[in-house]
Amino acid sequence: MGICAIWGAPQSGKTTLAINLAFEASRRGKSTCILSPIEYSELSTFLGIKIPKEQSLQAALCGSENIKQAVFKVGDLFYVLAAPTTADAFDISYTSEQVKSLLDIAKTTFDLVVVDCPSETNNMIAAWSLNRSDNVLLCLGGHISCALWYEANKRALQTVQKKAIYVGSQTTSSFDYEALYSYMKCDPKLNIPFIPEATLLQNECKLICRMSGKKGKSYSGAMDKLLEAIEI
């Protein structure tokens, strides 16, 4: 338990993984919070929610609300602490101490904190989340730019290597994933199967892990294995 940071190249399935993993953890009876500093995030769209300023990451960071008041409740034991939905939402400045304090409070408030980290390395919240996390899930997305991103961020990746879990997040069917992993000299601990209906489900604000049939069971099984890997 603790803080689990999700990181990787752009369009590598980070937000989709964060939402479904958090939901599955909450289904196991664990209070779970997704923390996302990404402005105009997919997260709000995927969950079908609008986050007001008074129940947002902004409110928690500036201290206008304590974390229990600032957090947005999505469902039983499932919470979100993210940038507000409004266009001018995240216009505050914050310090390293504020970020570290918020992460410490979140860790003691919830059984699991899932941080949806931006791909950029200059985001302070992502940087401290990666530093203070118990586990880092590194997404290996389905395009060659993923390999370029990993090469460009090699030094930063080395700092989280000891707590990293590589996840093969299959975002398309028309890609040679094995060739990508071979090129990157990386063997994912777990592969998340490609779900053709994923985009449609997300547009309808439906979770992939709640999908019926073999595909839904396969995806839920992958989430279960990930939760076991991070000891949830």
Attribute tags:
single chain; 232 residues; alpha/beta; Rossmann fold; 8-stranded mixed β-sheet; 18% strand
CATH class type: Alpha Beta
Q: H/E element string?
A: EHEHHHEEHEHEHHEHEHH
Uncertain stretches of 5 or more adjacent residues:
none
Structural class: alpha/beta
Helicity range of the residues? 40-55%
Question: In what order do the strands lie side by side in the largest sheet?
Answer: 3-4-2-5-1-6-7-8
Note the gap between the termini.
Answer: 6 Å
> What is the CATH topology classification name?
Rossmann fold
Shape: globular
Number of domains: 1
The CATH architecture is: 3-Layer(aba) Sandwich
User: For the residues shown, what is the average pLDDT?
Assistant: 88
CATH superfamily: P-loop containing nucleotide triphosphate hydrolases
**What is the radius of gyration?**
17 Å
Task: Enumerate how many helices there are, as a single number.
Answer: 11
Described by strand count, sense and barrel closure, the largest sheet is: 8 strands, mixed
Beta percentage is 15-25%
What is the number of beta strands? 8
